[in-house]
Each structure stands twice: as C-alpha cells, then as structure tokens.
Amino acid sequence: MFSDRWWIFKAASALLLFGALCARSGGLMSEVHPPIEQVAVFTDDLRTKTLALTGRKVLTADAAGFDIDTRVGPVRVLTPHPPPAGTYVSMVVRPIGPRTFATSSVQFNAGWAWKRPLNYALSILVVLVYAWAIRDRFRWRIQDGVFRGKY
Amino acid sequence: MPDLFTHFVTARVPGLFVRDRRLVALLAIGTFLPDIAAKGIYWILQAGEHFPLASHSVLGVLLLSYLACLFVDEPLRRQGFALLSLGGLIHLLVDMTKDNLGAGAVYPFLPFSPTSYEFGWIDPENVVLLVPLDAALLGAILLYERSRDRVRQ
Fold first, then answer.
1. Residue A37 backbone dihedrals phi, psi, to 5 degrees
2. In terms of domains, do A46 and A98 share one?
3. With A59 labelled, which of A93, B48, B93, B137 sits at a CA distance of 20 to 30 A?
4. What is the pTM of this model?
5. How many domains would you assign to chain B?
6. In a mutagenesis test of the B interface, which of A15, A92, A123 is the best target, namely the one with the most B β-carbons within 10 Å?
7. Is the model's pLDDT at A21 over the cut of 80?
C-alpha cells in the first residue's frame, strides 16, 4: 500500500475514490439541504428541508423581511427582525414558497467585507511561506515522481 | 472557516512530540489539505457548493492523506500517512469549534451519514481575530523547541 510499486495506479485510484466520495456526498447533501438555486423553483417537498446560507448581502429590508442576492436573482427571507440593507448575514432558512424563505436563526456577520478577504489572504500566505520554510526538508525529484527526504 | 494560520498553530502543538522535522512538516501540511482540496474543487473546478464537503469528512481526510503521502519518500510514507491524517483530523476538530447556527460545521461521516457536528464556540468570521493569540502561541512553541534543541546538543 505504501511502496513504490504501482505508484501511478495507487495515486490514480486514490484520486478517483476521492472524486467518487465527493460526488456521492454532494448528492446526499443536496437531498437533505438543497442548493438555494434549486429552491427558486418551489415544490411542496422542499418545505421539510433546511438550508444554511453563509455571508449573504442584504439587498433591501422592510418590516416583514429582507431580500438577499443569489445566482438566480434576489430571494425573499421573512423574519420579524430584519437586518439593515447592506449588511452581511448568515442564517438557517426553510423554503415556504417560490423564492421565499422563513428563518429559524440569523447571525450578523459584522466586518464580513474585510474579515473574509483577510482570512483568505492570510491562509494563502501561510501556505506559501511554510512551503518555502520547509523546502530544505524535502527535495523534488521529478523523475521519481516523489519528494525525497534529504536525511 | 478558520484561517490556515490557526490550523497551522493547532497542528504545531502536537508537533512538539514529533522529533523528525519532516514528519512535523507533514503534520502541518495535513491540516492544510482539507481546505486546499475544498477551495480547489469549489474555485478551480467550479463544482457545486455540496461537492467539496467530503474533503471535511474522515474518509475524505484519509483519502487525501493517502494521495499526499504517495509524494514522499517510500521509507517515510507509512508514518507520513499517519501524520497527514492526524493533521487532517485536527483540522476537522478545529472547524467544529465554529458556531454555524446549529447547522453543523463538519460532516465527518459522509458519505454514510449527512449528520453534521459543531461545538458552537466561535463565530466563524471571528476566528481570524485569534491571529495575535495564534502568533503568541507559535512564538512560545518555537522558543521551546529552540531551547530543547540546545539542551539536546
């Protein structure tokens, strides 16, 4: 399992299995928590589903609820305590009609506009810097297809 | 998602008990793998939002770790797989600290069960505010390692 024998076959198998795992899991998750784009076309069986939405910008708000933007256009979220327009929110919602949701919980994401980019920038920087820092612990031997330890 | 600096620092704590510097590196790389795979699938392959979730499952971590360990030296591979997997599992534990409103932060048993888990300790977007604390912890770890190496010499 860990030898060099049939290396390429093992790597390809692991990759294929991971792809199959992602496809199977994605299908299962879509049944339980349908993507928001799918909910745009409402059917009654969606009433029992919940969706977790992260970092959605509030387009407009009024006393009954607010609108958020999606890839299939704005959708309406009904809540007694709507956040002001322009803020970012995360929430767990339940479809109740075409392009309409009811919320079970809402989280205000204060500072979303800078916290998320900072998170990504820092993460990319950490990976690059660490890869540079540990370069002397491994050496790349492309003809062997593996990183060889230097020790 | 917690930033990879937080993930890196949490992996460096158990890394104190690993003597081989290459294995410490693999432990840290193991904590990067779930997010690198998930974001790669989502951003580069443009897959749906549910497709990359398996990268944050136990089976996904094991498969990613196995794939990654094939790229290290054969004598190091078995231990490398163990450390990469440990790093990935630490990543899942750290992700579980997020407060995702009860919707769950990690789906560890995919594809067998869609049940998700979270401890609900911290707003996911505020994890980045822990960076100064992470930096202090990392500084302490590096100082300890330096003094330990000096004593050994």
1. -65, -35
2. yes
3. B48
4. 0.87
5. 1
6. A123
7. yes
- Distance of alpha carbon A68 from alpha carbon A79, whole angstroms: 13
Residue A121 makes CB contacts below 8 A (sequence gap 6+) with: none
Q: Does ipTM come in above 0.90?
A: no
Query: Rounded to a whole number, what is the distance in Å from the CA of B77 to chain A's nearest CA?
Result: 6
Token digits for A94? 């339940």
Question: Which chain A residue's Cα is nearest to B65?
Answer: A14
A33 token code pair: 């928590």
Q: Containing domain of residue A89, as a range? A: 36-108
Judgement on whether residues A5 and A48 belong to the same structural domain of the protein? no
Q: Are A99 and A70 members of one domain?
A: yes
B-proximal residues of A, 59-88, CB under 8 Å: none
Take residue B93 and report the two structure tokens written for it. Answer: 């534990």
Query: In which domain, by residue range, is B39 found?
Result: 4-152
Residue of chain B whose alpha carbon sits nearest to that of A36: B49
Chain position carrying tokens 């794939």: B67
Query: How do residues A45-83 score in pLDDT, each as one tens digit?
Result: 788 888 888 888 899 988 888 998 888 888 899 988 888
What is the Cα–Cα distance from A112 to A118, expressed in whole angstroms? Answer: 10
Q: Which amino acid, one-letter code, is at B5? A: F
Contacts of B66 in chain A (CB under 8 A): 14
Instruction: Report residue A98 as tokens.
Output: 């075409």
The CATH number given to whatever domain includes residue A69 is: 2.40.50.140
